[in-house]
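Hi V.,

Quick status before I head out on leave. The structure for the redesign project is tokenized and pasted below; the design run finished overnight.
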């Protein structure tokens, strides 16, 4: 993916303009979501966590956590019949909500970059109520 020189050139234009777009969005209080596939070349899925580092320039860790959980959940809920998670709340921890939970070894509200290394810093991963990783002692 993105191996073609034409696609790489287009990707560079988008990436170069993104810094200004994010700064303007924050300045004008646009509801910002988290998640992209355009900043990290042909290793998108392996490097998507780099967005935490990228957003460090603009947002406090708690703002990024709100973007990646609550804000993203609110927008997905607006997608009507295309909502991939119908019938339950997203981005919250409450009864009846989708059980997507992580337990972080450290405080991501102080250091968001902890989330960039799941092998080292995430002790529990639960998705849709199913545990995928649990190294809690």
């Amino acid at each position: 993916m993105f191996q073609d020189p034409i696609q790489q050139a287009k990707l560079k234009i988008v990436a170069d303009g993104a810094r200004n777009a994010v700064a303007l969005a924050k300045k004008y209080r646009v509801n910002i979501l988290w998640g992209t596939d355009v900043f990290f070349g042909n290793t998108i899925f392996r490097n998507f966590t780099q967005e935490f580092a990228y957003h460090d320039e603009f947002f406090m860790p708690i703002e990024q956590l709100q973007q990646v959980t609550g804000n993203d959940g609110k927008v997905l809920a607006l997608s009507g019949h295309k909502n991939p998670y119908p019938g339950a709340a997203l981005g919250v921890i409450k009864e009846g909500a989708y059980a997507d939970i992580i337990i972080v070894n450290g405080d991501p509200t102080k250091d968001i970059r902890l989330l960039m290394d799941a092998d080292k810093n995430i002790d529990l991963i639960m998705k849709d109520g199913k545990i995928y990783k649990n190294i809690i002692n």
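Above is the designed sequence. The beta strands are 101-104, 122-127, 130-134.

G. will cover questions while I'm gone.

Best,
W.
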